[in-house]
Design brief:
By secondary structure, the chain is α+β, with helices and mostly antiparallel strands. Among the domains are: 138 residues, no CATH class; 46 residues, no CATH class. It has seven helices and ten strands. The strands form two sheets. An eight-stranded antiparallel beta sheet has the order 6-5-4-3-7-8-9-10. A hairpin with a 4-residue loop joins strand 4 and strand 5. It is elongated, with a radius of gyration of 48 Å. It starts with 10 loop residues before the first strand and ends with a helix.
Length: 286
Amino acid sequence: MADEKPQTSSKAILNPRSSGTTTIGSVPPVDPPDGPRRSPLREGGIGERLLVVLTILLTFGAAAYVFSAEEQDALSDPLKRAARGEVDSGTAISFTRRENIRRALTVIGETAAPGATIGTFTIRPDRIDVTTINPDGRTQTGQVDLDYSLELRDFSTSDYDGLDRSEIDPAAPAKIIDRAQRAAGLLPADFDYMTISAYPTELIESSWSAFWSEPPRGNDIAAAIDGSDVRPLGTADAAARKAQAKATAAAERARRAAAKQAELAIEQAKCAVKALDGEALARCYR
């Protein structure tokens, strides 16, 4: 058997200077100057580009998450909401709500001096202003914000005994706002503030005074410390009205008794004129 020769490829090249073609021998493939050609997949080109894209996406995603978190914090932060005017008496975080007032009273008790009482207590939807009276008569004032922070500062002195925290009914403000709407048409959204003060005498009972921004007139209300007896500010409270009614009834009874006595005296005088003897005269005054 004859030896087999390795196959070689021949390539026909057109010779422009002749009418035929020139055949040359085997032409090996030529590599580029920088070395053999390699597949982009093998050299990692697509993988690197994919990594860059993923990095960009993750960066934007993280930035979007941070922005969203900050935006959510700005929307939910109570102090920022108050600054934007988003807190009124109908808002869940408002200080007109019973549970929020109760929490604020607890903060006041924890911050004030031991044995301190409350001299003034003013509620707005977004804050509570308070004056405390220490046992030695020194007073301090401060403000409870919607984050329930409180810093008391020395203010002056007072001879008032003040109110114990337990005397302030946390449910009273909401009752007053509701009853003011039903009795006087004052809208909860227009509520401005209400305040309670301790008086130095038992002759005047502590009570609430509440104010609305609208309407321009007839926008103030008074109420008992427990939220009852809602009435126009400046009018007598229930106790005063009861005492006045009692005095009026007593005066009416006295007037009627005096009138009856006057009628009797007139009848006796007429009888005496007609009496003919002492016995008849005596009968006139029996």
